[in-house]
Specification:
magnesium ion binding, HPr(Ser)_kin/Pase, Ser_kin/Pase_Hpr-like_N_sf, alpha+beta, HPr kinase/phosphorylase, 10 helices, four-stranded mixed beta sheet, ATP-binding
Amino acid sequence: MILESDLVKALHLHTLIPSENGELPIEVSNVNRPGLQLAGYWDFFGYERPQLLGMVEMTYLSMLDAGTRRERLTKFFSYDLPCIIIARDIPCFDEMLILAAARKIPIYSSKRQTTQVEIDLINFLANALAPRETRHGVLVDVYGSGLLITGESGVGKSETALELVKRGHRLVADDVVDIRRVSDDRLVGESPELVRHFMEIRGVGIIDIATMYGVSAVLPSKSIDLEVKLELWKQGKEYDRLGLTDEYGEILGVKVPYILIPIHPGRNLAIVLEVAARNFRLKQMGYNAAQELARRHMERARAAREEEEAK
């Protein structure tokens, strides 16, 4: 369900026929332009989508005789349409208003171009209907990459994020991260409105990052590009030292690059995470330092073997 007030506010709509209960039964992030339906072809009609009418559809209806237009509109409104949006501020036909009121189908009007309304509507629905999940962790923007810092309570996630903020990076969420899957391979995280820009530092208490470090130190939301799990160093456990193979976690069905960083006294985690962010960006650009080092070793070994065989 979508709140009518959210849709009207986001798309700057004018309400012609309001929703009966303030909600719209929209469950998909697609939009339908019913040109073929108004022309009489009803197969594969995406009636469950918001219906967007622009200059083409409204001009076609105006060219029909009164009887045909009434017949087509009666058929159109016989479906359970979630809502209708008329672009370009085109006047609505009286028949549409009467039929919509009878069927309790909301109608809205927009001053914007039809294509712009469609783009804005799809983006709004994609965000509003995106699958969601809440995770315990900290989300920080480091060199343009969104780092989701996870780990057991008390491991030092907030302190690490605070040091990153001091070094010029930006906080998105502390302790609680609301995550949305906005596409098949993209996650966006944000902080709940109630605790946005606040951080808890044990022994100090609650601090306001935006007030203390300025608005440039915070972001309202950020894509999640890399998950960094902090773990207290465990004696005898083997940790990855080369990084030859990439590891992935999964959040809301999306594969997310994952690294595990062991913690022990003397490690500057803020610098380590800066390096992790830079290394991640290099890998995205096609350069892997571990693979490059392995390639050089292989070339050195091959050259030594060839030299030995030549003797």
